[in-house]
Write a structure and sequence with these properties.
Length: about 350
């Protein structure tokens, strides 16, 4: 069978963005704002963001990469699962999210079978992290129990994708082997959840990426090349900060504020910085729509990092108003990026038709 055309992929992406909207507005309510969020968006903020939005987005990207119609069942299950969750059918939603993760793991495993390389193996480990997280939800565990596995999913998925590009700047064999060991250890630390170990491994992964990623060289370029590199390097800095905060939160005993700071340093600073940086490449691949580079793309990027710094500072200082202001800035940065990207893409389409 032929691969799905871009017009058939778009509805899957829409499901993911509905999950994102519900998750972001739910997060604002959790910070104390009077936002128009559905009840499940507040209660299941993490599941909607990690599995509903990113699970759908990454599974869709993976399905496009292997060009097999069955692989699109993964983003479909994740997207529909998020909608079912929002409709109030919690257990059914979790089962669909777990099915989507399992199908993503199958798609990623098929890539590894065709190309048995370190980076495809790391991507497969990342998909298993998402499976583990969603199965915890199916089993009735609280969302907090799934967070470490979600973190592993993001770190290994992004790490594997960046490792693939290391072919453009060869990495020593010993360093590649170290990355493989680090990846396995990170997934294992996330499953029983050893917070100090997980945090330390995330710091090591950030250091590895900062040392060997080609972004350390392309940042000296210009235009889109420099923009992507700055997104990546800023993300690695937040990954290291987040890992260090997880270690500190464990050492501090209760450490709820430090845990929140570390969690959002990783899931906002690291993950969304990667989204901002990779969108000009992913959007054309998935929807065949160009996202041309313009300097205006720096506005949401700068806002994201400044507001996250305020949020983390609010957590560290136990200042609820500063934490809330930073969280609102994060939401605004994400919305501004979506509006900016949509405007640039529509402008590009108009130019093509004229």
């Amino acid at each position: 069978m032929r691969d799905l055309p871009p017009s058939a992929r778009a509805p899957l992406l829409v499901l993911g963005f509905i999950a994102l909207l519900a998750g972001v507005t739910g997060g604002l309510v959790r910070l104390g704002f009077n936002a128009p969020a559905p009840g499940p968006g507040i209660a299941w903020h993490g599941a909607l963001m990690a599995s509903g939005f990113f699970g759908t987005l990454i599974a869709l990207e993976r399905a496009v990469a292997i060009a097999r119609p069955w692989a699109y069942l993964a983003p479909a299950a994740s997207g529909v699962g998020a909608m079912v969750l929002l409709a109030g059918s919690v257990q059914a939603g979790f089962v669909l999210l777990a099915a989507g993760a399992a199908l993503l793991a199958a798609a990623t495993g098929s890539i590894w079978l065709r190309q048995r390389a370190l980076h495809t193996g790391v991507l497969a480990l990342g998909a298993l992290g998402l499976v583990a997280a969603n199965l915890m939800l199916v089993a009735g565990r609280p969302p907090e129990a799934a967070v470490p596995a979600w973190i592993a999913f993001f770190a290994l998925t992004i790490g594997g994708e960046r490792l693939e590009l290391s072919r453009l700047s060869p990495v020593p064999r010993l360093a590649r082997a170290a990355f493989g060991v680090l990846s396995v250890a990170l997934l294992l630390a996330a499953l029983p959840f050893a917070p100090r170990v997980l945090g330390a491994l995330l710091v090591l992964m950030a250091a590895w990426l900062a040392r060997y990623d080609i972004a350390t060289r392309t940042v000296r370029g210009a235009g889109l090349t420099r923009y992507i590199a700055l997104c990546l390097l800023a993300g690695y800095a937040w990954l290291a900060i987040g890992g260090a905060l997880l270690v500190s939160s464990s050492a501090a005993g209760s450490g709820r504020e430090l845990w929140d700071a570390g969690l959002h340093a990783i899931l906002v600073g690291f993950v969304f910085s990667m989204v901002f940086g990779h969108a000009p490449v992913i959007l054309p691949a998935v929807l065949r729509v160009a996202l041309p580079y313009r300097a205006v793309l720096y506005l949401p990027l700068v806002l994201l990092h400044l507001s996250l710094a305020a949020r983390v500072a609010g957590d560290v200082a136990a200042s609820a108003p500063l934490r809330a202001a930073g969280g609102a800035g994060n939401a605004l940065a994400i919305a501004l990026f979506i509006v900016t990207a949509a405007g640039l893409s529509l402008s590009s389409l108009r130019k093509e038709k004229s």
